[in-house]
DNA sequence: TCTGGGGTCCTAGGACCC
DNA sequence: TCTGGGGTCCTAGGACCC
């Protein structure tokens, strides 16, 4: 229905953006590694479902769902342990195939990427043919199913790949974009989640076509100015976004769910030091440091508050990040004395800047001066962190650590899984 | 029986400056 | 004495995405 016209000449108005998305990625990898799992409902994870196979999705099992609920929905559901190293390797291999057809590849996550083949269609043929070749090669060389949407804009390509799933290809002819979107649910649009969907539904808007017909002013009243303008542009197929091959991270963070723990120094101190240690290592590894430290505290009833401070100089030393985070957490406790239990702690560092080692050392010393006049411990701490980073580089993350840091939180998510979720800084 | 971890962007109000 | 207006930075909270 939405077939490419087959022209070989490529102009600006042509559909040259690909969005490629590996299907049920973690679960598909498990089925690839163990043929006995193929064709069966499986879930990766345990306490919580990280990914479900299509056979499991047919029962209503979804990612993020508590394992217990998943088992209720699908009694024969089989849980399998995660082969995290394999996820990374196979995800990389699949995305690398995109790179064989164009240098303009924007990786979104471990299993998803955009590509623009406008400049290379003369080498490899029309975008639809490139997409088919990529799908065939990922299947043959990596062993995994991948769905691809091909369209004139990122937004349309992304919707195309969602519609194409599982294991499909959808090419949206530029002349047929409006017809294609007309009856699709607004929830497929980038930026429309549960809250916005509900607001729109209340106004009687359920399809992208209806959204496109909505007066801009009422849309902005409903969802806010920026979101309204973006949504209107997307509904009208005016997506201004281009492929960005390398985006700098704007923040780096870490969090830890605690179940239900007393809101006390002996609990949050060690946890915050562990989180600060993780973030500090990642930042220093990339010669980055950040000025703003934000702490998030979630209470037992899942309400959460944040506290942030912006320092005059960027920091990356574990001990300083930890101290700032502990100060912020104490201020939360002062503000909410009636909250006796917490369920999650998080630290995030933003306002990131690249600094070379000398600057960093100077900056850290300076930050410490500001926090504690008369001392100059910052530089020493930086040296300690550097030494620790070096030991870890040779012997692994657990080889060394601060004595006051808990190395492994109870019922913690494996570090390998954390690393999968980390963005390249 | 109450969802883990890592991110981005926007809003609104206040402080502060010119 | 009362009166504006604009810009930037910071903080806290939310929605959303993978």
UniProtKB/TrEMBL annotation:
Subcellular localization, as worded in the UniProt entry: Cytoplasm
Listed cofactors: Mg(2+)
InterPro entries according to UniProt: DNA/RNA_pol_sf (IPR043502), DNA_pol_Y-fam_lit_finger_sf (IPR036775), DNA_pol_Y-fam_little_finger (IPR017961), DNA_polymerase-Y (IPR050116), DNApol_IV (IPR022880), IMS_HHH_1 (IPR053848), Rev_trsase/Diguanyl_cyclase (IPR043128), UmuC (IPR001126)
Details of cofactor binding: Binds 2 magnesium ions per subunit.
Signal peptide: none
GO function term, MF aspect, one: DNA-directed DNA polymerase activity
Top enzyme class: transferase
Active-site residue numbers: 112
Chemical reaction(s) catalysed: DNA(n) + a 2'-deoxyribonucleoside 5'-triphosphate = DNA(n+1) + diphosphate
Keyword list, A-Z: Cytoplasm, DNA damage, DNA repair, DNA replication, DNA-binding, DNA-directed DNA polymerase, Magnesium, Metal-binding, Mutator protein, Nucleotidyltransferase, Transferase
The protein's Enzyme Commission number: 2.7.7.7
Keyword DNA-binding: yes
Pfam families: IMS, IMS_C, IMS_HHH_1
Domain called UmuC: residue spans: 17-193
Residues bound to Mg(2+): 21, 111
CDD domains according to UniProt: PolY_Pol_IV_kappa
Annotated site location: Substrate discrimination: 26
Assembly with partners or alone: Monomer.
Family: Belongs to the DNA polymerase type-Y family.
PANTHER family: DNA POLYMERASE KAPPA, DNA REPAIR POLYMERASE UMUC / TRANSFERASE FAMILY MEMBER
Protein name: DNA polymerase IV
Organism encoding this protein: Devosia oryziradicis
